[in-house]
Design goal:
The two termini are 28 Å apart. It is globular, with a radius of gyration of 18 Å. It has 9 helices and 5 strands, in the order H-H-H-H-H-H-H-E-E-E-H-E-E-H.
Length: 200
């Protein structure tokens, strides 16, 4: 599946929040200036549609998806019983690349995606190189032994990060205990606005 390869900070400036860890200091220092040299000169008032669109774009960019794939996730979520927005967030959170990131095996979602697509991750003992692979309760996720000497992997493993309660990790092996609850998923996204965008 294709992915966005352009400038990342431009995306953070467009959404007005630090979508990626490296952009946090810039956004804090400069504020939420729109992209471009003259980004701060004209401030547009967003319509209701514009607010919904920006929320959808923000979610799409946080999880590193393109439009077609994000739309597919929404279509799947809309056919499930219960809350469509929560179902959408669950599908996004239980992607393999996001789960690797949540387990602390990679420093960012982009780094986790690269690890998966390069074949450095095992699921239940078998190598999986599909970032969109949907994880389920009971499966184990581990880094291949040959990657244990990798500098980035060592930094990620040494960093102290709070592990969500739906996951557990011992050294380089993680396990999915159950599906995540909404409060354990990405908090910077309003799924209601996304549902409203697609329902218009």
């Amino acid at each position: 599946m294709a992915r966005y390869t352009g400038p990342k900070r431009r995306l953070s400036r467009r959404e007005g929040v630090a979508l990626f860890a490296k952009d946090a200091a810039f956004i804090e220092r400069k504020g939420a200036l729109p992209p471009g040299q003259h980004g701060g000169k004209r401030v547009r008032r967003l319509s209701e549609y514009g607010i919904q669109l920006r929320e959808k774009q923000k979610a799409k960019r946080i999880f590193g998806l393109l439009e077609r794939q994000f739309n597919k996730y929404y279509q799947i979520a809309s056919k499930r019983k219960g809350n469509t927005g929560v179902a959408l967030m669950e599908l996004l959170e239980t992607r393999l690349d996001n789960t690797v990131y949540r387990l602390g095996l990679a420093a960012s979602r982009a780094g986790a995606r690269q690890m998966v697509s390069h074949g450095h991750i095992k699921v239940d003992g078998k190598k999986v190189n599909i970032p969109s692979y949907q994880v389920k309760p009971g499966i184990t996720i581990a880094i291949l032994d040959k990657m244990l000497d990798n500098t980035q992997v060592k930094i990620s493993l040494e960093a102290e990060s709070a592990l969500p309660e739906w996951l557990e990790r011992k050294a380089t092996v993680g396990k999915v205990l159950r599906f995540p609850k909404r409060e354990e998923m990405e908090q910077g996204i309003s799924e209601l606005l996304i549902v409203e965008y697609y329902s218009r």
